[in-house]
Amino acid sequence: MIQVKSESYENTKKIGCIFGRVLEKGDALCLYGEMGSGKTAFTGGVANGLGISDRIASPTFSIINEYDGPVPLYHFDVYRISNEDELFEIGYYDYIFSNGVTVIEWAQNIKEQLPDNRFDIYFNAVDENTRIIKIFGIGNMQNKMSVLKKTFIEKDIEIYAL
Which of these CATH numbers, 3.40.640.10, 3.40.50.300, 3.30.470.10, 3.40.50.410, describes 2-154? Predict the structure, then answer.
């Protein structure tokens, strides 16, 4: 597990950008946290790290936003999803096993349908600006944790112990 602290929107985006640089086609990020905890800001940084310059917006009502880049980004907001049939209807399984990076906000709402190999990322809003971000590698994503940790340290992102 890696734990980092962000003290601003810009820093949360920077952390996401650094994270995005170590991702590869087929990787999945599952985001957990209350509204306003930094999930979409982080996703915007991930997009930048993947070479995508588009403005990232939460797909609250569209459920999925697609962004083209060197590695495509598929950004899900499954807050309103209530069953597996709805996931099938929006093509979730086609995206999750495709040639892009998939980010899923409100992943706890579809926990039975999450890929076995993924990053679980938890956002905790400490105050208006401060966020504690905990990153877990699940399945074969554990192998990327040491690369991610090294990259954070090289980019002056402080790793915090529990």
Answer: 3.40.50.300
8 Å CB contact between 50 and 70:
yes
Nearest to 19 by CA among 29, 5, 10, 33: 29
pLDDT of residue 110: 92
Query: With 60 as the cut, is the pLDDT of residue 47 above it?
Result: yes
Task: Tell me if 73 sits within 8 A of 103, measured CB to CB.
Answer: yes
- Work out whether the CA dihedral 27, 54, 159, 110 comes out positive or negative: negative
Enumerate the domain spans of the chain. Answer: 2-154
